[in-house]
Amino acid sequence: MIPAWKAWLLAARPKTLPAAVVPVWSGCLMAWGLTGEFHLRLAVITVLGAVFIQIATNLFNDVIDAQKGADTSARKGPQRATVSGILSPRAVYSGAIFMLLQAIVCGFLLIQVRGWPLVLIGIPSLYLSFGYTGGPFPLAYRGLGELFVILFFGLVAVMGTIFIQTGEVPWQGWILGLQIGCLSAVLIAVNNYRDLEEDRVADKRTLAVRWGRPPVALLIYAMTILPAFLVLSLDRSLCWFGTALALAAIFVFLEFRLLRRDGVSSSLLGLSALHLILFVVAQNFC
């Protein structure tokens, strides 16, 4: 029996958390570049809220996929807390709700600064942490997982962060949001690529199930390299463009090798998260 803290860490899926942290980090960098101002307190509250929602999403996903049969003890990927019996469904649901309550507290603090427009971001984000895999129209079971991530972990998260920092909605944020959204969606596409057989049996109609593995592999490559070319619409800096393009080329090569070798090893998920982080590092230093 593994320790309780390790069970909850497993359920939280720490490899996916860069998808919550990086949009805030990137949005803060752009806000600073556009205005010369940076509000640390707002940034900390924003990133905490994003992490709480991401963990809640992961917990809901863990328990709902187990109950629907999309996760089984024979799955290829990392061990899941509910299906393996490490945590009870009730405990995982309770943990997810607790995370949402923490996110609501963060949202309330941000509303005090930027007003009720943030409700338009907060309410859909809170609901879709559950609605991604649960509810009457679960997005992950309809092949909309990648689109959801691009919209909410890219455009909404980046633009929301910039608005929280500056009170403005600059056009550059939409481009940056699309870049971050694509790189974050690679994490979902990799998961779905790996879990294709299990998802098909459970009638989880991901893009991998709908299209098959070769088209999804091409989608993974496209979402890896497109953000590098979008740099040209934001900045004429050859340093940032060259670095971003070099990173994309390296990771496309690694993805190609791993996808051809064994259908996706767990290392590809970590590599995809690393690419997301390094992309923003390049944005910061170029």
What is the radius of gyration computed over CA atoms, rounded to a whole number of angstroms?
Answer: 18 Å
CATH topology assignment? Farnesyl Diphosphate Synthase
Principal-axis shape: globular
Tell me the name of the CATH class.
Mainly Alpha
Q: Could you name the ranges where pLDDT drops below 50 across 5 or more consecutive residues?
A: none
Number of separate strands: 0
CATH architecture: Orthogonal Bundle
Can you walk through the features of this model?
The protein has a single domain (4-285), classed as Farnesyl Diphosphate Synthase, CATH 1.10.600. 77% of the residues lie in helices and 0% in strands. It contains 12 helices and no strands. It has helices spanning 4-12, 18-35, 40-68, 89-114, 119-131, 145-166, 171-194, 196-201, 207-211, 213-234, 238-262, 266-285. The longest helix has 29 residues, at 40-68. The chain is globular, with a radius of gyration of 18 Å. The N and C termini lie far apart (48 Å). The relative contact order is 0.12.
What tags apply to this protein structure?
286 residues; mainly alpha; Farnesyl Diphosphate Synthase; 12 helices; 77% helix; globular
Question: TL;DR of this structure?
Answer:
The chain has 286 residues and is an all-alpha fold.
Task: Please write out the topology.
Elements lengths: L3 H9 L5 H18 L4 H29 L20 H26 L4 H13 L13 H22 L4 H24 L1 H6 L5 H5 L1 H22 L3 H25 L3 H20 L1
